[in-house]
Amino acid sequence: MCNPLWRQIDTPSTLTIELTDDKKGSIKGVQETETASGTTTRELKRGDFPLKVTLSKGMKCRVLVQLLSTGATSQITVTSSVTGKSSRGPDACPLRVEGKNDVAEMRVSASARS
Amino acid sequence: MRLQSLVLLALVAPVPLIAQEPVVVTCLPAEPVGTCQARFTPTGSAPIPKEQTSAGAVTAAASRLQSKAPGPDLSSLGPLSSITDFLPRLAAAVLTPVTGTNGPELGFKTNLPLNDGVLFRWGVTAQITGVFHDPKLYGPLVDSIPASIREASRATLESGLSVYDNATVTGALNVENGRLGRSMRPHLTEIDNLADALLPEPEGGNPVLAATREFDAFFDVLDARFDSGDKTMLLAQPNCAPGENGLIDTPFGCFTPAMQDLLRTGITALANASARHIAETSRTIRESGFTRIAQLINNQPQLNFSLELNPRRSLVGPTEWTGKGRFEMGFANWNGLRRACRAAGKTAVDPECLTSYTHDPRVTGSLARADRVFIEFNLVRRNPWHVYLPSDSVDLRLGASTTFAVSGGYGAYFGNPDDGDNRDRVDLTSKYEFARDDAIRQNRWISTLFYTRHVSGQASAQIGLTYANRPEFVGDVTRHLSANLGFTYKLNQDPASAAGQK
User: Distance between CA atoms of A89 and A82, rounded to whole angstroms?
Assistant: First the structure.
């Protein structure tokens, strides 16, 4: 499923996001991590995947993954899951771009219990 | 307060920069809210064709016999020229029948990923091909048999031949690095960096994540209310309870009508934010020329070398080996983009020089024509050959010979680029062969100019001229205009024979 919004995750658990990359498109991502001390944003690149985020009490993590077309047809699969004290997924979201669809994106949201 | 902010988000959504169809959210009563929001939050993906879902089965069957192809044709315009595409799109299974050539053959082809960036970084990709041809008696051998016994002798001799009597084994190397080769792999980091520069994160954060934050916060409040004993958001029905993710897993129909309206509003806000983000990103990358990158890389110069060994049983012909070196390129390519950026004083490819280069009329024209040039060197060495068949009155001997050939060509499409390879094209090729130590062959020069008219589907009409330095080298043409010049008109059903490759 694309765009999962997982909530009430028991901690400690790990959010994992993997890509199957056909290396024909351009991959961009943004990770937003919200904790009691504030929100941090980090830009993600191809090399950052597989992404593993350890979820602690009250943490919220949102990841946006974009596939941009270079002109070639490109298809990747974003597989996300939560493992540990809680289990979610795995959910697989195929993203595909070609001449007409230049951009494909999906987001994963994981919120841990306070 | 969070409930109010969700409504506010939906009501004061910023005016979209690009007109889009409004999202109309309808959640099924039995559908969990989270599933509904996932369904209505667009990914922008093209639909996956049904046949691709079974591709895994095909790939698994072939994978034990092949290595991953180094890089298939990347251009969205499809195969772009008469020039042989070194990057194979298929790797056949062992002993798969190969048709469409002079006769039934068996063969295999495999790619060795010596530059996959993981196990190997050798800067080349290798390909090994083996073909077993349908064996026929050597032509000069047949001609030397007296006419009175020729057919009978031919039948007897050919009955003893097997498919292993005429084999071809080819080893080829294709250079792949940042300046040569059409693989995307050497350029991935550069392209990803370009995307980062093209689409920086906006002030105030990513709007999709911001909308997700609001939606998530709404459910924080809702779950907190439920946990504190306030269940007024739900209808008093059996099976209406929170799931493992809280109330977001509760069926939509379990909520009160007022809450359903609020949920619909929230999902709409999230969906609209996603749709806007995808549309704006799409517009930005299109306008920048980013979607031309694959074509620029596809036009990169290619340098490849091959060695072909053709061992044959003497009845089939002399054993030969062929060494080949080939260079080809399209004119508008990634190297050209780098040069343009350097000329503009940039140290790397950036969005500004990408836009400037891909909008240059000379570049757009070249990309539209998909024009390419090639030059190739061939060295063919034939071993000495002798066959003695006293019962058939054959005693034929050929000495060793060496032939060196240089060829070059230019090909281009005409017409609407959106038609891909279903367009008219012109191909000009020229070849000169130097024959040494060869009693039969003579130096020959052949030039062809062909215009291929796309008719429909795989059919094309071809019209062309062939010039040769000797009349006997003009070959099979429709009409001889002079001793050295021939005119050809033919209708092709085979796409590979378009542009005079056959």
Answer: 7
The one-letter code for the residue type at B302 is Q
Q: Could you say which residues from 70 to 99 on chain A have a Cβ atom under 8 Å away from some Cβ of chain B?
A: 70-73, 75, 86, 88, 93-99
- For the four alpha carbons of B258, B264, B268 and B274, in that order, the dihedral sign comes to positive
Looking at the predicted structure, is the pLDDT value of residue A19 above 90?
A: yes
Residue A113 forms contact with B (CB below 8 Å): no
Pairing state of beta strands B124-132 and B167-175? antiparallel
| Rounded Cα–Cα distance for residues B230 and B209 (Å) | 29
Q: What is the pTM of this model?
A: 0.79
DSSP state of B212: H
* Residues 6+ positions from B151 with CB-CB distance below 8 Å: none
Residue B434: the pLDDT is: 87
Of A50, A51, A34, A33, whose CA–CA distance to A42 is shortest?
A33
**Using one digit for the tens of pLDDT, what is the confidence trace for B240-270?**
889 999 999 999 999 999 999 999 999 999 9
Q: Is B246 left (phi over 0), alpha (psi -120 to 50) or beta?
A: left
- Write phi, then psi, for B66 (nearest 5 degrees): -140, 160
Task: Quote ipTM for the complex.
Answer: 0.95
Contact flag B293-A64 (C-beta cutoff 8 Å): no
Would the pLDDT of B442 be above 80? no
Whether A1 sits inside 8 A of B216 (CB atoms) is: no
> Do B277 and B201 contact (CB within 8 A), yes or no?
no
